[in-house]
User: What shape does this take?
Amino acid sequence: MKLARFGPMGQERPGLIDHHGALRDLSAVVPDIDGAALSALDALRAVDPTSLPLAPADARLGACVTGVGKFICIGLNYADHAAETGADIPSEPVVFMKATSAICGPNDDILIPPGSEKTDWEVELGVVVGKRLLNASEDEAAAAIAGYCVVHDVSERAFQMERGGQWTKGKSYDTFGPIGPWLVTPDEVGDVDNLHMWLEVDGRRYQDGSTRTMIFKPAFILAYLSQFMSLQPGDVISTGTPPGVGLGQKPPVYLRPGQEIRLGIDGLGEQRQRTVAG
Assistant: This one.
């Protein structure tokens, strides 16, 4: 099942992608795609998509989940990305938070912060929680995954590494967290440990990797995080990026206003954004 949200910013409606790839309006079934809906996915699976009205063909897509309580990120979680940054392989997941106010639709403009010279890109696999977890086992964590999505973990490297070493400051500017286009339930994803993922800037492919080089896998990450905090339905965990980020280029390459970014993950859809001065 592929779930989505569509409509003007702040007025999004819940949606479902039918077997022909058309977007259907779910608002007669659930108020929105949020923690409550994700806790009751069996009810959504019982819906006949052909009974739902079609969404407008030109509808804007919003973030595929709303009401996100926590937006948690895992750093240096791909062996080949750690190598390109010169970092050691972490012995435990590197955890930081991204402000939920950074969340936006998959095709919305990305704002370049005033004075920024080091805004960077990162295609990532997002995991959306469907059940509360606390001190969970890996099996319990795997069963609590509502679905997966594409996350663009936009990062301002100077804010991240040159302003006191607190990563959250470089990760949280408004629009730095496009999510979607879809939330895809695990039964439709296939082998989550072998998904091709890619990112292009102005038609040049910089990232061309796979989840197979991920160090800590999704179920382990959720179980690990649940030692330190409860995870709630609707929480989003962004699980790290493969090599090819701007910081890793020689010399480094960063985003500037007026560029186009395309990124995607097999089976989870694509995003397309323009960069604009913020």
